[in-house]
Amino acid sequence: MLLGRTANGLYWMSRYIERADNMARLIDAGLRMALTRTQNASEEWNSVLLSAGADVAFSQKYTEYTASEVSDFLLRDTTNPSSVISSIETARNNARMVRTALTRETWESINEAWMSLKRLLASPIDERELPKVLDAIKRETALIRGSFFGTMLRNEIFDFYQIGTYIERADNTARILDVKYYVLLPSISWVGSTLDNYQWESILRSVSAHRSYRWVYDADYKPSNIADYLILNSRMPRSLTFSYRFITEHLRALAQDYGELHSSHAMSERIYSKLKNGSIKDIFDAGLHEFLNDFICDNQVLGDQVALDYSFH
Amino acid sequence: MTAFDEMFPGASGPRRPYASYDQWLKDQDPGRLTEKMRDAESVFRKTGITFAVYGEEEAAERLIPFDIVPRIISGNEWRRLTLGIEQRVQALNAFLDDIYHRQEILRSGRLPRELIANNVAFLPEMIGLRPPAGVYTHIIGVDIVRISEDEFYVLEDNARTPSGVSYMLENRETMMQLFPELFKRVKVRPVENYPQLLRQSLAAVKPHNVAGAPTIAVLTPGSFNSAYFEHAFLADQMGVQLVEGQDLRVVDGHVAMRTTEGYKQIDVLYRRVDDDYLDPLTFRADSALGVPGIMDVYRAGNITIANAPGTGIADDKAIYSYMPEIIEFYTGRKPILGNIPTWRCSDPSSLSYVQEHLHELVVKEVHGSGGYGMLVGPAASKKEREAFAKKLAARPSNYIAQPTLSLSTCPILTEKGLAPRHVDLRPFVLVSDRIQIVPGGLTRVALKEGSLVVNSSQGGGTKDTWVLDD
């Protein structure tokens, strides 16, 4: 038996842990891009902010898009609810609320991540220190994931946590793609300039997939392959299909546990089968931007439906 | 005034209960001990055993300082204490039952009527209501101080929602992690089964119409409450749900919690929410921490609330001074554990005595707790005493006074080695169809040299409390 409020806490705890992790990857990619493409740096930082869904809030505070300002806003700014510091604080508050549902190791890993990241992000970060800080964020979230996977019972608690993780992750990957969808369009890819090459690498980098891409598709970057990789590849852990495989699996587990199907089940099955049976050609033909837009919307609606079906509030 | 030190009462070496520990201590490298002290702190911080301090802006999560020198009680001393505590707890429950029913003690004239009539801790809503299994106060913390080798006194009873038991358990856990070898050398009685005992005890007082195992839950005001850690800890250790008011509602005459599969009935609620906030339909209407209508469910006998509403009348500081009479009235025997002599300032002759002796007395608010709003005469400045005298004159019945007792001391580890500090003791008592006391309790220690205030909110710390298996 699980309280609705606890399910809600688990769901958001995992979403915010995932968000902190994704934010670090995103900044990492932006940093690399800015280093290698100095003349387009501010444009690149702008797309990082767009992907993070933080562009409006940022522009209210700053006028220039520089590495130190953007990274400060995304890492340390407590007025930005999706900054790493805010995310880890929210994750920890939720963890505190659902503490009785967590193993001691999981709780401690979250509490320690909160303590160490708070210390790390207490004062402005020198650009030279940035890679070290980003590594630390990824390491802390990996430790949380590790203790969670290593110690938690595979029950409803696990299911709600996983659903939160993958809804957040799918949202993140879809946004990254959508911000850069135009560089992936076939019409532009024919140009095949070096600019596109950097852009493509940046997309892969922001989901830490620039190396594994080569294991799967071996040769050069091709926009249709990149899109295929991040949307449809069922083995790429940050792809939309992969995310939906797990969302669907954990919703099924809940249905079996409770012996009851809800609207969220039909919804996730529908999204999953669209992904599983989709081809990148069809997606491009129908419009990549439209596809991503619909997906982001569906994904959000599913999250709300899960909250409704399982009495989160 | 020299205090009785429980470890080194004189120059002749340690008292018997400490002998074995003292020997071990002599073999320890001081540097290693200091290191262990730091280890302990990081363990507490890591596990998040913190408490919030009200009135501090930065939503401060603070650690209660932990001292690594245990407070040791011999088996014999403990047996004496438990007899006294049991007697007291029996009397408290008998008193509560009486005061909400026939009020024999008032009829007999042993207790003045106005003490009850004008008391905000007395809940008229409880009149004529008998809780399941007839138990009013299920979980009690009895604060005990020691003055000498043989003199123990009860400082106060906590019959509402006593806290601190999680520290008793975590302190022991930490000590066992830090000094496993010590527990091989000294036979200490275990305390770790407290959560199981609590669960059994709560289950034993389920509503009579519940067949089979009852559903138990812990009700917390929420994660911003100062004792939230303890609420979560106990729910977790008992394997029951930790609920908030927003999770609960009355469904078909029962209190139910909102789960991922709909509403589920609760039979026993261990609430850590004050009476005032329990039911907005009966008590404070603005409370969002309680359950609208829970008192109706309670009256219908469909839920056990632990502790019962209205138990505050038994641990009220004005009632405290009558505890010897109360114990004798209900048990037919003299109290085994004494009270500290207490002047009730509502009484004119006591008031003038207190006013003349402010410099040597401790004066407390009748309804206060946590060490707030009290005056420690000998430690206060002239100015503080004068300010307090005005408050006292304005509302004498709001105050009681007690002599400044020289609380016993126990050494703590400081940077300069061992140093004596004043301590008290809060054992925890469980009442169901029987009375159980876990061998140990929470030792609170005033960390400031010479200070007598042990409250954690006022800079006190804690120690592991050992009851020897001898």
TrEMBL record, chain A:
A Pfam family hit: Alpha-E
The DUF403 domain, residue ranges: 2-310
Top-rank taxon, per record: Bacteria
Protein name listed in UniProt: Alpha-E domain-containing protein
Organism: Oryzicola mucosus
Lineage summary: Bacteria, Pseudomonadati, Pseudomonadota, Alphaproteobacteria, Hyphomicrobiales
TrEMBL record, chain B:
SUPFAM superfamilies recorded: Glutathione synthetase ATP-binding domain-like
Taxonomy, superkingdom: Bacteria
Entry-linked InterPro entries: ATP-dep_Glu-Cys_Ligase-2 (IPR051680), CP_ATPgrasp_2 (IPR025841), UCP005522 (IPR016450)
Domain Circularly permuted ATP-grasp type stretches: 70-446
Protein name as catalogued: Circularly permuted type 2 ATP-grasp protein
